[in-house]
Design goal:
About 25% of the residues lie in helices and about 15% in strands. It has about 230 residues and is of the alpha/beta class. About 20% of the residues have low confidence.
């Protein structure tokens, strides 16, 4: 057997050492990142899982290795803006104002958000089951029918048996069936506004409440407050 020279023997040993270092380095790069779970309540670090008795929602995740320094994504799903609507509740309610409600809300939900009706509110005059739309105003009117203490009044068999009257004793004008000439009898309503009320009704369908008149051009809060005691929807 031929004897190796010292120079060749040294080269072989160096090559083996370099190969060993390369294998160690390769194993280090393939090692998975270390995940440390830290509970907010006890501040005790946990490796590979949650601390017994701790809540999963209170854990913080800290990554090391290749993922160290990267922000941990927020897994909570934020509520989308399109899932909410903004409505205005006015009239005889405990807390009139603007409220944000879920998009699937109805008039009864808007009434509850405003603290419910007052002792003078007439919620029978509005459709509590009607869905509400974004930007809509819900107007709760005041009771108009009051019996004198000395009179005995029989409860009507149905809503159709009730004849509503204005404060002046005149029958209320149904804005869903009234003609333009009849609408001109309302306070502050002239020929132009009456025509617009009819035009809006033809385009959008019957009014669900008197407050829908705010959608008619030329009718604002001030004019609606004058019209409301003399108008109704059926």
């Amino acid at each position: 057997m031929k004897r190796l020279s010292p120079r060749r023997l040294t080269a072989i040993i160096a090559g083996v050492a370099l190969l060993g270092l390369a294998v160690v380095a390769l194993n280090q790069t393939r090692r998975p990142a270390l995940v440390v779970m830290e509970d907010d309540a006890s501040n005790a670090p946990m490796i590979g899982g949650s601390q017994p008795g701790g809540s999963g929602n209170q854990d913080k995740v800290v990554a090391s290795g290749a993922d160290a320094g990267k922000p941990v994504p927020d897994l909570a799903t934020p509520e989308r803006a399109e899932d909410r609507i903004i409505i205005h509740v006015a009239g005889e309610v405990a807390s009139p104002g603007v409220y944000a409600l879920p998009a699937c809300s109805r008039v009864v939900d808007a009434l509850e958000a405003a603290g419910g009706g007052t002792s003078e509110s007439d919620t029978d005059m509005i459709n509590l089951a009607l869905p509400v739309r974004d930007g809509e105003q819900i107007y709760v009117p005041r009771k108009r029918l009051q019996a004198l203490p000395s009179q005995e009044v029989d409860a009507p068999a149905s809503r159709a048996d009730i004849t509503l009257s204005s404060p002046a004793g005149e029958e209320l004008i149904n804005i869903n069936t009234a003609s333009a000439d009849e609408l001109e009898q309302l306070p502050g309503v002239g020929p132009v506004t009456a025509a617009r009320i009819v035009e809006y009704r033809t385009k959008h369908g019957n009014y669900s409440s008197v407050s829908d008149l705010l959608g008619v051009s030329g009718i604002g809060e001030a004019k609606l407050s004058k019209i409301a005691p003399y108008a109704t929807v059926r």
